[in-house]
Amino acid sequence: MSSPTGNKYTVLLPTYQERDNLPLIVWLLVKHLGGCGYNYEIIVIDDNSPDGTLEVAKQLQEIYGEDKIVLRPRKAKLGLGTAYVHGVKHATGNFIILMDADLSHHPKFIPEFIKKQSEGNYDIISGTRYALGGGVYGWDLMRKLISRGANFLAQTLLRPGASDLTGSFRMYRKDVLEELVSRCISKGYVFQMEMIVRARECGYTLGEVPISFVDRLYGESKLGGMEIVSYAKGLLYLFATT
Amino acid sequence: MKLCTKLVQWLTLAGLFFAAWTSLIFEILPVQLSHAMYRVVLILPLYLLICFGSYSLATIGYRLTTFNDCEGASDELVAEVKQAREDLTKKGLKF
């Protein structure tokens, strides 16, 4: 099938303990990417989940084909940044889509990413919860307050030119992603923030698409004191060094 | 190592402002301020700080109350998940 844009899109799905969610996210990806006629592949990078995520991924590979579902498991839980490096090495697409496998990011937005990208020939498309039309489901007032406060602080200190710094639903040109990952040293939430800051340093162009973020429908969401402390540290690090 | 970091930018601006302010207050520059003007300049840093604080609180407050709750997105997802489970079971997937 020829793709309406002539591009190939690789979705990287780093998983750990996502046995229940993986089939659902893959089904949604097939529906929304295949349904629009795009040329795509899904790379599942499972970090040796004890719940059998990889086994379910193999079943999905049988259903959808080895050209669509590519398995690149790793031996242990090694973190997000290295998962992206690992995945990109095996990617055959010229655009890479990063998203969470826990259903908080809906694949229906990917066609909008692609449209936005072709409109402005952007290097990066970032899904944003904070712009008009975006939003979040399942957050209480406290969580919203922390999120808004943290975002305001980061916007004021870094002036990054993107409204959602900690979001992890994004699309990159393959070479841009490789370049940025090699420059980033942060982990967790700060990693996503650093990617945007480095992108601006390198002069890459960025477009934004409003997304709705549905906080973990199954399984629990995490935001503890440790996350807030490491966010603050990471923000100050970027403030002082970039 | 980058020299003109965001931190340096902020410190430079703050330093310039502070230099201008102290030279006016301690009459280092040959500028004669009227008594009323002097009082305005004297409390200017505090005044700016309060303005910035109010702006921050107002902005965060406004964005907090207008934070979009995507009720529809959740309902839509639940419905699609149900479809997905049925379809995948039909295709032979063991959950």
TrEMBL record, chain A:
Keyword S-adenosyl-L-methionine among UniProt keywords: no
InterPro entries for this protein: DPM1-like (IPR039528), Glyco_trans_2-like (IPR001173), Nucleotide-diphossugar_trans (IPR029044)
Biological processes, Gene Ontology terms: dolichol-linked oligosaccharide biosynthetic process; GPI anchor biosynthetic process; protein O-linked glycosylation via mannose
Catalyzed chemical reaction(s): a di-trans,poly-cis-dolichyl phosphate + GDP-alpha-D-mannose = a di-trans,poly-cis-dolichyl beta-D-mannosyl phosphate + GDP
Entry superkingdom: Eukaryota
Role noted for this protein: Transfers mannose from GDP-mannose to dolichol monophosphate to form dolichol phosphate mannose (Dol-P-Man) which is the mannosyl donor in pathways leading to N-glycosylation, glycosyl phosphatidylinositol membrane anchoring, and O-mannosylation of proteins.
Family, per entry: Belongs to the glycosyltransferase 2 family.
Quaternary structure, from the entry: Component of the dolichol-phosphate mannose (DPM) synthase complex.
Protein name: Dolichol-phosphate mannosyltransferase subunit 1
Organism listed in the record: Geodia barretti (Barrett's horny sponge)
From TrEMBL, chain B:
InterPro entries: DPM3
Cell location: Endoplasmic reticulum membrane
Major place of residence: endoplasmic reticulum
Keywords from the named record: Endoplasmic reticulum, Glycosyltransferase, Membrane, Transferase, Transmembrane, Transmembrane helix
One example GO MF annotation: glycosyltransferase activity
Keyword match Ion transport: no
Source domain of life: Eukaryota
Residue stretches spanning the membrane: 7-30, 36-58
PANTHER family: DOLICHOL-PHOSPHATE MANNOSYLTRANSFERASE SUBUNIT 3 (PTHR16433:SF0)
Family: Belongs to the DPM3 family.
Subunit: Component of the dolichol-phosphate mannose (DPM) synthase complex.
Identification of the protein by name: Dolichol-phosphate mannosyltransferase subunit 3
Species in which this protein is naturally found: Geodia barretti (Barrett's horny sponge)
Source taxonomy: Eukaryota, Metazoa, Porifera, Demospongiae, Heteroscleromorpha
